[in-house]
Amino acid sequence: MSEHIRISKQDGRLDIRLARPERRNAITIAMYDAMADAIEAANAEEAATRLITLSGEGEDFTAGNDLMDFLQEMPQPGSHSDVPVWRFLRALANNVVPILARVQGNAIGIGTTMLFHCDLVVVSEAARFKMPFTELGLVPEAASSLLLPELAGRRAAARYLLLGEGFSAAEAKAIGLASHVAPADELEAMGEKVAALLLSRPPEAVRLTQALLRRADREALLQRMDLENGKFAERLASDELKGAIAAFFAARSGGGDGGGGDRS
Questions:
Q1: Which of 93, 111, 132, 166 could disulfide-link to 62, CB 3.0 to 4.6 Å?
Q2: Residue 31 sits in which domain range?
Q3: Which residues are paired to 6 by β-bridges?
């Protein structure tokens, strides 16, 4: 269990909260392990868990991977699903319990890609989304190269994945990534309202409907995730990545913050 992941369970609801606001909720290996453990356990006892929520403390949902931590134990080519970040993503992709995410501030890298696997996504009007993989010499993750074109169309997906363009809460709603948009000071209340509404529905009907809404070809989704993981691991050894990481830390050195996440 990571001290930076806060987990609470009550009345059929599992709340998972990123609790590292001093580092913009940048995610460490231990945090991925803790979240994967919690989601896998909830899926194993699906009758007792009716809703999973994901949220972050402070100004941002998450700045993505903690690069200092990530660089110490990077996935290697040929790695399998026991790599913590990939185990977390597979747990999301395989989940059978509805997931509601509440997003404020920046959602960078995996902070955006994990949302493709959530059933409901409530975002602040001020939220910003960005997947800067090519900037870092990397490739997409979480089957986003499959799911984003299906959701937004190929041209929009190229803007967000090839060019790494950031986008707003309004754009997230327009392409179907966000289900609800709320004023910043009403985000938590909106999230609780949506959660309460879902929990008020007959649980078996919710469970069956969630299963019907999931992508029919689950195997293709997992295969794309594995393909991306392999390419991602290969890119971690590239000179392009090394140059991008060096530039990232050079830019950060003036501020003295070596624990930030993916470039925003």
A1: 111
A2: 5-183+203-252
A3: 17
Backbone angles phi, psi at 16, to 5 degrees: -115, 120
Tokens of 94: 């395989």
**In degrees, to the nearest 5, what angle opens at C-alpha 54 toward C-alphas 170 and 210?**
85
Domain-embedded: residue 262: no
Report strand pairing: 13-18 vs 5-10: antiparallel
Q: What is the CATH number of the domain that holds 238?
A: 3.90.226.10
Q: 180-182 and 167-168: which strand pairing?
A: unpaired
Among residues 109, 129, 149, 71, the alpha carbon closest in space to that of 262 is found at: 109
Q: With respect to residue 189, please indicate whether it lies within any of the assigned structural domains.
A: no
C-alpha 78: how far from chain center? 23
- From first to last of its 264 residues, what are the pLDDT tens digits of the chain? 689 999 999 999 999 999 999 999 999 999 999 999 999 999 998 889 999 999 999 999 999 999 888 777 777 766 656 789 999 999 999 999 999 999 999 999 999 999 999 999 999 999 999 999 999 999 999 999 999 999 999 999 999 999 999 999 999 999 999 999 999 999 999 999 999 999 999 999 999 999 999 877 889 999 999 999 999 999 998 999 999 988 888 887 765 444 456 643
Residue 73 tokens read as 């134990």
Query: Residue 231: inside a domain, yes or no?
Result: yes
Tell me how far apart the alpha carbons of residues 15 and 38 are, in angstroms, rounded to a whole number: 9
Structural domain includes residue 258: no
Amino acid at 119: D
Q: Is the pTM of this model over 0.90?
A: yes
Q: Judging by beta carbons within 10 Å of its beta carbon (0-12, 13-18, 19+), is residue 133 exposed, middle or buried?
A: buried
Number of domains in the chain: 1
Question: Coil, strand or helix: which one is 224?
Answer: helix
